């Protein structure tokens, strides 16, 4: 790693020879395979941008020039080249983030791991440079072919292309894949560009050869260039990007540093928006014993780099696999049930369904908004669509859920995987907002299963609803042991009685502990700890957390207080809805919610984050006990006991420093 060790920042790249650059690229590949195999992470995407990242940092002057990464999962090489070499705790608590991070480096801008936003950022930064007269700075946006299928990318492109004299460089990192091969007309067009513009490659080659040819080389190159221009204008099909008003440069071999640099230098000279189309290979240079991985090692867990065998034993059955299996069963019984994925067929568990019913599943690309609206169309057309996405990504389709699906009372089921704290993917990947954001959607129902059996049951209940949106949400962890119900009150499962009388026969207790979904495990364990202190908790799983079960206020009224535990933001979540329902029913009881504070959570394992938030049995029991003590004291008119602790969730870890505004030169 001789050369990589010598790279303390982008300036150290500038003097390296062509041979040294090639050697550096191989050192980086070896480093990535070794490091990411130890920690897990986005191995494939980063192996695909080694030469591209080197070329970008040689041609541009980061951070003066802004190099922006869409999604950011492919920024490991960028991190290596900007002085960050300790990957030992990548995506781990206190270690490097798996995405750009302003707290880590001034070279990083976009921390959001949601795809298709980079061109919007670039448009804004380019406008800021223009308004502030920073004509000597470049904005370079790297976007994958997958991210280009996202609608926001086209909103930005429409604006960028309109400003013919505002410099902005777009680098399309075209490896023909998201997880799977990228779908749609855009992918087809990129494929056309890959083949039609072969003369670009010839030109790039010819230029390098000619420019090395003394005396006649340059003039000959210029005449060739002129001829090429004439040819292109006369014969070659104008690509979509040029039709839009962008200068198109490419396709370029994205693994040829000299060719990429040459294209970037051309783009840098162009006084307007220019798109450099780079062809790369996801997972390049990694050929383990395992036959080619289906998704080219998009995300890997900690593994043996030779065999890809996981280093840690799998933690058991995933919620995703339970969902996927039940979908195949439902698909056999219900020919009207169809499925939609946003470029994540396998990660969301729809691969089996797709194999069984290939004509009843669509990959719409990284286009969650379109997924929701097209689902409204499917439902109106007489089918029942199941839209499977990660919880955090449904945020961007809120308006479509509200105004297309719910307003028209469409029977659409949204299955939100990775709901709650996901952890290692950092703040923008936690699925911690859905049970707040979706609370305001009229008619929409939300289920949070506590175990596999409930997931199967609630999924079936959901696809039976044909006049409103339904949502099923579950976390990124293994499915726990089955949690049996002792009784049913209304539509709610009683998991533990709080007093001698069973809850379904009028019994109550000190605390009604409402547990949302997988937090049932925490709630039940907390109730056991409280019982040791003589506090009787009735633990109830609402199953459908929205709307609040009509029987809940009556059940609550047989207790002294209500506590709600949820793997969701405390703001406007299940706890808030329960408190509102009690007020509406004029049941005057204190309600305490134990959930996620209104904060962005730094990356760490899910268990570590939950522990930091106090969402563990011991802490939850302690805080409920303390709250009850304060409530009792208040009832007796006495001051709260000293050090009674706080019922509110401890503050989340401090957010990273706010964005450093660019200082005027
Ligand atoms: C809005 C949104 N939906 C889904 C994802 C999940 N996701 C992460 S990377 C990825 C594929 C990105 O493909 P591409 O942009 O081509 O980048 P590559 O991995 O090929 O480098 C997807 C779907 C996401 N990050 N954001
Ligand atoms: C970058 C991105 O959004 C995905 O690749 C995500 O990191 C995958 O998350 P899981 O590993 O939980 O499937
Ligand atoms: Mg791609």
From TrEMBL:
Its EC number is 2.2.1.7. Mg(2+) binds at residues 145, 175. Binds 1 thiamine pyrophosphate per subunit. Binds 1 Mg(2+) ion per subunit. CDD domains: TPP_DXS, TPP_PYR_DXS_TK_like. Pathway: Metabolic intermediate biosynthesis; 1-deoxy-D-xylulose 5-phosphate biosynthesis; 1-deoxy-D-xylulose 5-phosphate from D-glyceraldehyde 3-phosphate and pyruvate: step 1/1. The keyword Metal-binding applies. Belongs to the transketolase family. DXPS subfamily. It comes from the Bacteria. Thiamine diphosphate binds at residues 73, 113-115, 146-147, 175, 286, 368. This is 1-deoxy-D-xylulose-5-phosphate synthase. Residues 638-665 are annotated as: Disordered. The gene is dxs. PROSITE patterns: TRANSKETOLASE_1, TRANSKETOLASE_2. NCBIfam families: dxs (TIGR00204), PRK05444.2-2 (NF003933). GO terms for molecular function: 1-deoxy-D-xylulose-5-phosphate synthase activity. Residues 638-652 have a biased composition (Low complexity). Residues 317-481 form the Transketolase-like pyrimidine-binding domain. Gene3D superfamilies: 3.40.50.920, 3.40.50.970. Homodimer.
């Amino acid at each position: 790693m001789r050369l990589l060790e010598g790279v303390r920042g982008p300036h150290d790249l500038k003097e390296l020879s062509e041979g040294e650059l090639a050697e550096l690229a191989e050192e980086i590949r070896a480093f990535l395979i070794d490091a990411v195999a130890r920690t897990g992470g986005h191995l494939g995407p980063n192996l695909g941008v080694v030469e591209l990242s080197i070329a970008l940092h040689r041609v541009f002057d980061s951070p003066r020039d802004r190099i922006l990464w869409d999604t950011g999962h492919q920024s490991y090489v960028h991190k290596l080249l900007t002085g960050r070499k300790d990957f030992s705790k990548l995506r781990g608590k206190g270690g490097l983030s798996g995405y750009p991070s302003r707290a880590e480096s001034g070279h990083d801008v976009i921390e959001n791991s949601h795809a298709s936003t980079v061109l919007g950022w670039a448009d804004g930064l380019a406008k800021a440079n223009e308004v502030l007269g920073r004509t000597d700075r470049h904005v370079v946006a790297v976007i994958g072919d997958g991210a280009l299928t996202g609608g926001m990318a086209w909103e930005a492109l429409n604006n960028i292309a309109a400003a013919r004299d505002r410099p902005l460089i777009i680098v399309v990192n075209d490896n023909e894949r998201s997880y799977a091969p990228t779908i749609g007309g855009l992918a087809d067009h990129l494929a056309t560009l890959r083949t039609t513009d072969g003369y670009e490659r010839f030109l790039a080659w010819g230029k390098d050869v000619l420019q090395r040819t003394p005396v006649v080389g340059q003039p000959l190159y210029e005449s060739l260039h002129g001829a090429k221009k004439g040819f292109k204008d006369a014969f070659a099909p104008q690509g979509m990007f040029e039709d839009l008003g962008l200068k198109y440069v490419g396709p370029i071999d994205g693994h040829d540093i000299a060719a990429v640099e040459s294209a970037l230098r051309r783009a840098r000279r162009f006084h307007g928006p220019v798109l450099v189309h780079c062809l790369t290979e996801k997972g390049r240079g990694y050929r383990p014993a395992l036959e080619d991985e289906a998704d080219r090692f998009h995300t890997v867990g900690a593994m043996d780099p030779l065999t890809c065998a996981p280093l840690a034993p799998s933690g058991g059955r995933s919620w995703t696999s339970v969902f996927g299996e039940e979908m195949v069963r439902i698909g056999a019984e219900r020919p009207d049930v169809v499925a939609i994925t946003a470029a994540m067929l396998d990660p969301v568990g729809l691969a089996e369904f797709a194999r069984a019913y290939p004509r009843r599943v669509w990959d719409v690309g990284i286009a969650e908004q379109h997924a929701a609206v097209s689902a409204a169309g499917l439902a109106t057309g007489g089918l029942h669509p199941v839209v499977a996405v990660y919880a955090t990504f449904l945020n961007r389709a809120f308006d479509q859920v509200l105004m297309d699906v719910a307003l028209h009372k469409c029977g659409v089921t949204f299955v939100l995987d990775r709901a709650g704290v996901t952890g290692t993917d950092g703040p923008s990947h936690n699925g911690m907002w859905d049970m707040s954001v979706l609370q305001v959607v009229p008619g929409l129902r939300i289920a949070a299963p506590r175990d596999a059996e409930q997931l199967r049951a609630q999924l079936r209940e959901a696809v039976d609803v044909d006049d409103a949106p339904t949502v099923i949400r579950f976390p990124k962890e293994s499915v726990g042991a089955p949690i049996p119900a002792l009784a049913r009150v209304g539509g709610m499962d009683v998991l533990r009685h709080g007093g001698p009388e069973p809850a379904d026969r009028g019994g109550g207790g000190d605390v009604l502990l409402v547990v949302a979904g997988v937090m049932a495990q925490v709630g039940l364990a907390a109730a056991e700890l409280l019982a040791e202190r003589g506090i009787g908790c009735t633990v109830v799983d609402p199953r459908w957390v929205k709307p609040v079960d009509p029987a809940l206020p009556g059940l609550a009224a047989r207790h002294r207080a209500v506590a709600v535990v949820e793997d969701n933001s405390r703001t406007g979540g299940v706890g808030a809805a329960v408190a509102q329902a009690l007020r509406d029913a004029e049941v005057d009881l204190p309600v305490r919610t134990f959930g996620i504070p209104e904060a962005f959570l730094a990356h760490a394992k899910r268990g570590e984050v939950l522990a930091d938030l106090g969402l563990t049995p011991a802490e939850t029991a302690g805080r409920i006990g303390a709250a009850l003590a304060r409530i009792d004291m208040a009832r007796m008119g006495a001051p709260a006991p000293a050090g009674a602790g706080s019922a509110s969730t401890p503050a989340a870890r401090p957010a990273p420093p706010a964005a450093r505004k660019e200082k005027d030169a």
